[in-house]
Amino acid sequence: MIKIIINWLALPYMYVSIAIVLFFLTIRSRKLWTGKAGGLLLLGSILFLAYSLTDEHFRGLVTRPDNVPIVMLLFAVGFFVWFALKQAHENDERVMQGKPLDEVAWKDKVFVWPNLVYTELICMVVATIVLVVWSIYIPAPLEQPANPSSSPNPSKAPWYFLGLQEMLVYFDPWIAGVLLPGFIILGLMATPYIDKNPKGNGYYTFKERKFAITIYLFGFSIMWVLLIINGTFLRGPNWNFFGPYEPWDIHKLVPLNNVNLSEFIYVKFLGTGLPKHWFFREIFGIALVVGYFAVGHWYLAKKLLKRFHDLMGPVRFHLMAFLLLVMVATIAKMYLRWTMNLKYIIGISEFFFNI
Amino acid sequence: MPGLKDVMESVKESQVWKSVARNPLPSNARTRALAVLNNVFLHLHPVRAPQSGIRLKYTWCMGGLTFFVFLVEVITGILLMFYYRPTVEFAYADIIDLREQAPLGLMRELHRWGAHTMVITVWLHMMRVFMTGAYKPPREFNWVVGVVLLLLTLLLSFTGYLLPWDQLAMWAVTVGTNMARATPFVGYEGPGAALLKLGDINLVHSADDVRFALLAGRFVGEATLLRFYVLHCVAIPFVATILMAVHFWRIRKDGGISGPM
After folding, report:
1. B53-253 falls under which CATH superfamily?
2. How far is B2 from chain A (nearest CA, A)?
3. CB A302: neighbour CB atoms within 10 A?
4. Do the Cβ atoms of A135 and B158 come within 8 Å?
5. Taking chain A, what is the end-to-end CA distance rounded to the nearest angstrom?
6. What angle do CA B171, B174, B179 make, to 5 degrees?
């Protein structure tokens, strides 16, 4: 019964919505769980994983050698987000009480030998033991010899690129495989130049950097890690969705009835049929995309984040606003696909230009 | 009869010992400083550092672990190169031999799981640096170098993925590189590519676009294997090593481990 509910909750729009709501709830209510409750939560999720392992299909999925690191990643990210926010919360409390930051209280210089060198040695020994034990118990996967004439179903990219492969469902390859990763790298590189907040340099804090930390953690945990989990565990043959306890049926039928925005407008609402020339056909889509970015930039700069705009100056601000709008638009497009089967907002196949 | 202590004492007094370990074992401030200063590896560190910055609680040792796992990858990788031939004829059989025949048949496992570990630790290292605001001035440029290193880590892992030459390898790389042909202007199915023409002749087509450059062919084949092998074993580690040197150097030059101003 629980498994049926969970399979239902694992539907894309369900679990992404839940994850997004949960993300903001956890950020807001960090007081509650940065203490022991967070540890209990982690313990609970480990017990739940143990319970899930009693399901044959789930066990087969999770214990596949190449999927082991992803389970590790899931728990590692959970633990370290908790650990970082716990220290941030403690520091924020200290500042409120007028006490110095934890890092300031420990700022005395000590000798690197032995204080740091020994820590590093212990870390190296532990890492070596973990790697050797892991290697002894789980052999590296090796499948049949490469065969160009038979492609496995599903064909998956290496796990760290599965978030991008998931994007291929909603976008053409030039966006999913080129533009979006390009924006991620550009955005990360630009971060220190965009973020003009002088506070929070060199210590854990949340209150002094709410915006930056929320955006970063959202991007990393939801849009990167969650989509990797999704691509590994919930995408089966033909890249169809399967619940975590649902066997991968290669014959699962999923209707393919995605429609372009132009068809929505001309065929469904106006009933006139598509215009011949691509410009008139796609004019609504182009207007929507251009309008989204224009209004978005205006609204962020003049209303929602006016404070930042004045602080950062126009170049920094609009670079940040653009990346933020792309992030939101990516999620919006995913929802439009799930709820309305929208294929392309702009679909100019004549030039391979589809958005 | 001389005791163990006497033997140790005479070893430490010997010319050989003294020539190798220039300083006495660290026991006081002076010798601790010398231990770090006089050792080529340890002198990556300063002699003294703020306690807040070297606590495990603050750094999680993630950067250090990433570097350590990189060294594990280099060592196991060199050992694997003794046995592995990057050709369609031999690659797969050599991988089988690595498991069945080669002494210490654990090296491929260590190499593969180490690669996964490195991807995870490098992400967590980035998260730690972000959460402590350690990318803020004066460390902006080092963060940029770090982003490039993260990208190189992923590319190292990706190029290595092909080398076993099994179904997993071939199709993961096919899926991964298929996107390249849609690169705007330089991929033959990318937007804008059709605009680049001389008369009737397309300048960008399936045999000269960016995917072709990556695969050394239209499909994943023998030439791709060699190309990925060289990228994986020589080219990317070469660039990554240089950038790592810059990364570590800049930590020191930008004021050491981050901490409150």
Report:
1. Cytochrome Bc1 Complex; Chain C (1.20.810.10)
2. 31
3. 10
4. no
5. 40
6. 140
Residue B90, token pair as written in the block: 């031999």
Share of chain A above pLDDT 90, in %: 30
Q: Tell whether A270 and A326 lie within a shared domain.
A: yes
Best CA proximity match to A300, nearest among A314, A284, A285, A286: A314
Choose the mutation target among A116, A161, A171, A232 for the interface with B, i.e. most B CBs under 10 Å.
Answer: A116
CA distance A14 to A20: 10
pLDDT in tens, A268-292: 778 787 888 888 888 888 999 999 9
Note down the domain range covering A106.
Answer: 2-140+195-239
User: pTM (2 decimals)?
Assistant: 0.92
- Is A161 domain-assigned? no
Position A322 pLDDT exceeds 90: yes
Query: Would you tell me the crossing angle of helices B62-81 and B107-131 to the nearest 10 degrees?
Result: 160
Calculate mean pLDDT across residues B47-60.
Answer: 90
CATH 1.20.810.10 region(s) of chain B? 53-253
Q: Is residue B229 within 8 angstroms of chain A, CB to CB?
A: no
- Residues A229, A320 within the same domain: no
The 3 state secondary structure assigned to B123-135 is: HHHHHHHHHCCCC
A353 touching B, CB under 8 A? Answer: yes
Q: Which of residues 64-123 of A touch B (CB under 8 A)?
A: 66, 69, 72-73, 76-77, 80-81, 83-85, 87-88, 101-117, 119-120, 123
Which range of A1-10, A44-53, A312-321 scores highest in mean pLDDT? It is A312-321
Å between B160 CA and nearest CA of chain A: 11
pLDDT classification of B177: cutoffs 50, 70, 90 = confident
pLDDT average, residue stretch A328-340: 89
Task: Please give the pLDDT value at position B142.
Answer: 96
Distance from the A136 Cα atom to the nearest Cα atom in chain B, whole angstroms: 7
CB contact under 8 A, B260 and A158: no
Q: Which of A172-176, A182-186, B178-182, B256-260 has the lowest mean pLDDT?
A: B178-182
Collect all residues of chain B within an 8 Å Cβ-Cβ radius of residue A282: none
B215 touching A (Cβ < 8 Å): no
Interchain contact, B180 vs A177, CB within 8 Å: yes
What secondary structure does DSSP assign to A126-164, as a single string?
A: HHHHHHHHHHHHSPPP--SBP-TT---SS----GGGHHH
